[in-house]
Amino acid sequence: MPQVSIAELVAGVRAGCVVSFPTDTVPALAALPERADLIFATKQRSQDKPLILMGAKAEDLWDYVIGTEAEWRVWQQVAAQYWAGALTLVLPASDRVPQAMNPTDPTTIGVRVPQSAIAREILAQTGPLATTSANLSGQPPLETLTEIAAQFPDVLTLQISDVSGIGVPSTVAKWMGSGWVILRQGAVVLEI
User: Fold this and answer.
1) Nearest CA among 129, 125, 115 for reference residue 165
2) I need a surface site. Which of 22, 118, 146, 155 has the fewest CB within 10 A?
3) Which domains does the chain have, with CATH numbers?
4) From first to last of its 192 residues, what are the pLDDT tens digits of the chain?
């Protein structure tokens, strides 16, 4: 696993590579949204488990979702309360989302802004990225560079001494048209 600087990692993403960097929860595997298929292959992930679109700030993600004016108000209120943080919102996807992000249900997309300053610095330079936890599908998230290097020798990984997040994945809440359903309880307790 080549350990690289932020500039080299950003260049790698732009060149279509899968990369890994720390977040506020667990280290991420990431790629350009249109290259999401690379993450599915690298992780050996089933196509029915969609990826998360991670952005540096909420404004970077709103073009990827579509809803009514009333829905937008609810979503933006929740985002203002919980982002940056460990909450993924699953919302109706706009036509800007590549089908590779969610191959079996391209009508929705999970979006998140991490609390990690390093992750947001990377995302500010790359734009929103397709992300998931750094691990083989079905196994626990990896938490150290050594573990990531052993499992993913071809992934560009940010050269950093501390990759530790809280070690708990984000909470995933899906918008159901009139309210939220928790798909995965993680670090954040969403008051719904």
Assistant:
1) 115
2) 146
3) 3-184 (3.90.870.10)
4) 578 899 999 999 999 999 999 999 989 999 999 999 999 999 999 999 999 999 999 999 999 999 999 999 999 999 999 999 999 999 999 999 999 999 999 999 999 999 999 999 999 999 999 999 999 999 998 888 778 888 999 999 988 766 666 778 899 999 999 899 999 999 899 876
Residue whose entry in the numeric block shows the structure tokens 């670090």: 187
Q: 């573990």: which residue's tokens? A: 147
Orientation of helix 117-126 relative to helix 6-14, angle to 10°: 40
**CA triplet 170, 116, 161: central angle to 5 degrees?**
110
